[in-house]
Queue: 2 jobs
Job 1
Amino acid sequence: MKKGFLNYFIPRIIQWLIVIFIGITVAFIIPRLSPVDPVETVLNKMTGYSVMNPEAVEELRESLQAMFGTEKNIFVQYGEFWLRLLKGDLGPSLTMFPVPVIDVILTSLPWSMFLLLTAIVIAWILGIFIGTITALNSKKKWAKILEGFVTFLYPIPHYILALVLLFLFAYLIPIFPLTGAYGMGITPQFNMQFLFQIIKHSFLPALSIILVSLGWRALSQKALVSNLLSSDFMKYAKIGGVPKQTRFFYLISNSALPQVTDLALSLGTVFSGSLIVEVVFSYPGLGQVLQSAILQGDYNTMIGIVTFSIIAIATASLILDLLYPLLDPRIRRS
Amino acid sequence: MKIRSFANFIKHDKNMMFSIILLSITLVMILIGVFSKYDPSQYFLFPKSEPPSRSNIMGTTSLGQDTFLTLAKALPNSLLIGSMAAVISRILAVFLGTFGGYKGGKTDGVISVIAESFIVIPRLPLLILIAFTFKQQLNILSMGFILAILDWGWPSKRYRSQILSLKEREFTQNAKFSGMGDVEIILKEFMPFLIPYIIVDIISGIIWAIGMETTLSVLGLFDLEIPTVGTMIYWANYHNAIYRGIWWWWGFPVIFLIITIFGLYLLSASLQNYLDPQTRIQRIKVSKEEVKE
């Protein structure tokens, strides 16, 4: 029994390590392929914005050289990069020098997590629900309209959908606020009013993520359920007089498992989408940090976010993979 | 005969019909863009921020450009980037997927693990880092290439599983025993099976790449002088077009982007349906019944 478990876990953990290794290596190599010296470019850009005293500039140059270490051997640099990473050190933020990048990420992370987790859970459940009912009623007109609607939304890029929603429901018909995570001048506190503010502000960003992810979930669920409906065990269950609710449960439990695996694989895409949605709605999450890093040429923060998001998404998808045997009785027993 | 069966096919497939309508709108726009001599980088040829009128059917931008003609120039560029990214990434995917699937063993293991990694990794942050690093070198060609490097994971996985099943068929053994080399078997025996899937895949690749190009351009990570749908929206945002009520500046690019993307999506969906063996059998039955009538 134990051997079966190990056979399931070990390849996945190895895969996780490889994903992180490849991602981090790419994030390390790219800045070094730059045709211009990153240290000088960043320094010019930083000092161009504001007048800094010479000591601060020198300090900045030192930290940049430690980051990009242009004079050292590339393998030594690579080793040092990993050592710093293992200590959780992503270097200092350049625009908020000397605040560490990891602190900048951690302050904005709760907002991103809140938005992303809510959106993923709602989209997953709703997608499975819509997929199942459209497959069960595939001849009915309303099911066709519903399917057409999710099919239409699915290929639209996150940015475009978010922009259209922002225009429609925040500018043209101002039901929802334009930007931010809570109203201006409101101090965060725990009461119903503040909670309502947060929900109101994150509604449109969450909706943009949900609507796009919904399409794929519903379409794949419909295909899965259609296959299940024509399978032998469902036919026997129907002939044998198994009640309708039980058969519905059979359908869901048999189709939800492949959807868990699929969710693990699609996390990266949803995460990318949520970053750009946060930019559109000026939501104070990682996306906003990334956008301001682009605008101000904060290379350290950008590399930090790339590294962090690769590790985070790989780990999240590993956790989903490891949960899989708990959900699937066939793997659990073997 | 072939034309008739194609016409028959369209009649039965509403997706295809709708996609042809949408894509012909895009095509007209592209043709206008290719043949017009308008230069979008010439600012202030027209009055600023005019709403749609008879002389400028989609209005003018705050930079004094004609929105319609700028969009007609931008749309082909966006599509070109998308197609290039899709074609390059699929070539890469075909090469790696078929090679790994055919060889099996360790080679296959290594390629699959790398492909899997490229599927899991969140691509937008990485793309932003790449585009930011090479911002001075960004043009239509390099943008297509950058997008291509990150989009070969899924397709290579699909081609690999196709090859794994083709490899077990009898004709592969026949080819082997008659002395064909590995490369020859892949090119001559397997490719004919793969090509239809590759075509569908290229279309879905274009959709992804256009979306990503737009996203990167909106963030300012592209040569902003090149008109694309993304850079048009970037300049509209830069001049606060949404809050100033200049909806035609960003609205028309968005509408045409959605028309193009949805048209392409329907095309790929209906081609996929056409290739699916189960529906193919149904279709043959239907057309036979029609012949009888």
Job 2
Amino acid sequence: MTTLQKKHALAAFAAISLATTLAGCAADGTDTSTGSSDNGSSDTVTGPYQDGTFEATADYQSPNGTETIDVTLTLEGDVVTDVVVEGVSVNPSPEVERYQGEFEDGIAAEVVGKKLDELSVDRVGGSSLTSGGFNEAVEQIKIKAQPA
Amino acid sequence: MVSVEQRVAEFDRVYSRFRDDSLVARIAREAGSFEFPPDAGPLFALYRELYEATDGAVTPLVGSALETLGYDRAYSLRPSGPARAVPPWDEAFGWDEPRLTVLRPTVVDVGAAGKGYLVDLVAALLRARGVDELVVDASGDLVHVGEGSLRVGLEHPLDSTKAIGVYELRNRALCASAVNRRAWGNDLHHVIDVATGLPTRNVVATWAIADTALLADGLATALFFAGEDQLARFDFQFARMFSNGRVEHSARFDGELFL
């Protein structure tokens, strides 16, 4: 596994809204919220922030129902130095349940899934999470990272 | 100097069909001739190549089919009419870089390759700043630049706590597509078969690796409709999973599949 050193930029779309907010500008990222034309996050919480690693979980309505997302940000000197984003659960649609049924029936289930927790991976490639849940988790982290 | 934030916002203002004030939203309301920014060239060029390679399955004209099924700006997720086939490219619009001409209001959807393209644009911006070790990750569409490699878990489309394999990504882009997260209602999801206007049934997840995220993203979509032979003109590696759990991959695949 490669260790990305701190002096190298770790850019994730995830980090954009927080980084910009830290700089005092209004975040104006992709808005996927239902029907509204303003961007969801308000800027009532601003820096400076404590250094450290902060985690938050948020629920968000995606086309597939409620999506739960877990975000962990590491902050150093008001800069995001590490981002981990995990989709905690995905509600199976009837379509997906049908495929799961096929697996259970033993139809050529050739793929064997291995638990991500047991694998050593740097990133995960799968269908994308929506940004709404992420933005909400970041708002929680901004509060948690306020100086005591 | 344009920040990453500004570049993303600029891209969204042109290409997002989820907001009223984008160029794409304007084209969905009025016929006419519209000038796109310079970044549109490579995007439409790739779409044209994929359109031809997949016999029209990959197309930026899939937008109205998606909206009819309910994947619209308000996420209404309710079909608003009967499914209808997607029009052929040359009937619906003329692309003469940088101008797009439509004879009727048209929903242009660049979802198949747009996010990958934006990953490339962000990476290019960072490299221009002298950043030579980076990862840009747009939630599963990623590019790695620099030394070493990135171990990327290939998410199981039916169980997000699991992976079906691991890929060693080194100075390339990896993009993934699956039917699980954008699925709703009565067997609807967001990967559309243009012949019917309805969601595809057979391939459930794809992963493509190429030199650019634009190409990897476009191919990840194309792999729902076409196999290696049809896509032979492109230089890439891939894996794709079918609804029966079977996985197919390129002969050269710098990773491990758990079979």
